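Reading a protein record of the kind used here takes only a little practice. These numbers are not coordinates but entries in a learned vocabulary of local backbone shapes. Here is one such record, which you should read through line by line.
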Amino acid sequence: MEGVELNMEWVSLAKLTKDTLALSAKLPPNVSGVVGVARSGMIPASILACLLHKPLWSWESREGTLCNVGTGPRYVDHQNSCPTGKLLVVDDTVYSGKIMNRCREGITNALYASVYVRPEAQGAVDFYGRLLPSPHLLEWNLFNGPPLRGWTLNPVMQGGCALDFDG
């Protein structure tokens, strides 16, 4: 777009790790387990589960499936094997809050957190590491993310992006 200044932030995996550590200082210690929103939310969730010494679960929001990432069967019977106590549901980023709302519908008795939150979506979570305005590119999700496919609400990125790898 002509005449539009593009201030896009690149977020590396190392930066995600550092910001996840900063998020951990804001979290209450009394959670009984950590649930990562599949897929990208599993990165900070696994870091937080290790730091908090809590079991790790995965939530597939499209399917409404809770998976135990530890030992035993991968998919659990919700009636008999769900974790008890207050869970911490974690995602890497919150853009609109739609996925977190799906999580709230499927997982009760939980706190909700994200490492990065778009300023307009702060209310979607209870805790966040830092604000991350759009547009931004995430190293761990670069080729799967909306910007390269043109699937974004940001008008600067709606046409998608082109990459040239040969120099």
